[in-house]
Amino acid sequence: MNRRCFPARGDHYATVKTPQCQRFVSSRLHFDIWRHSRHFTRLQNSLIALLALRILRLDSAMEASLPPLRAGTLYLVATPIGNLEDVTLRALRTLRDCDVIAAEDTRHTGQLLRHYEISKPLISYFKFNEARRSEEIIGRLRRAEKVALVTDAGSPGISDPGERVVRAAIAAGFRVETVPGPCALIAALTASGLPTDEFHFIGFLPHKSGQRRKHLEALKNMPGTLALYESPYRIGRLLDELKDILPDRQIVLAAN
Question: What whole-number distance in Å separates Cα of residue 149 and Cα of residue 95?
Answer without folding.
Answer: 9
